[in-house]
Amino acid sequence: MASNALVEVTDANFDADVLKSDKPVLVDFWAAWCGPCRAIAPIVEELAGEYQGKIKVGKMDVDRNAATPCATKSPAFPPCWFSKTARSWNS
Asked: I want to staple 45 with a disulfide (CB 3.0 to 4.6 A). Which of 3, 35, 69, 89 is the partner?
């Protein structure tokens, strides 16, 4: 990850770092082969730096972490999800 403000989100830490976060969370689901994902990456990194300490910004590599994107019913790439509370993921 290019920015220290970005959090690497994985299937293993999704619950703790996203669903149970005390701050709102933006998660960028991405893949190395996804052109649009690479196109928005600088914007996600900029948001992470600009809002550091106010919100958590994470990136999840969907090729290495397939369970969570399926559970959140991500329709296509590049989806970015914003969660204020765990309930946001179930709506």
From this structure: 3
User: Beta 80-83 vs 25-30: how paired, if at all?
Assistant: antiparallel
**Token match 């970005």: residue?**
6
3-state secondary structure at position 45: helix
Cβ partners under 8 Å of residue 44, min gap 6: 6, 26, 28, 57, 59, 80
Annotation says 37 is catalytic? yes
Q: Which of 17, 19, 24, 34 is catalytic?
A: 34
What is the distance between the alpha carbons of residues 68 and 88, in angstroms, rounded to a whole number?
14
pLDDT tens per residue, range 24-42:
999 999 999 999 999 999 9
Q: Which two tokens stand for residue 31?
A: 């893949």
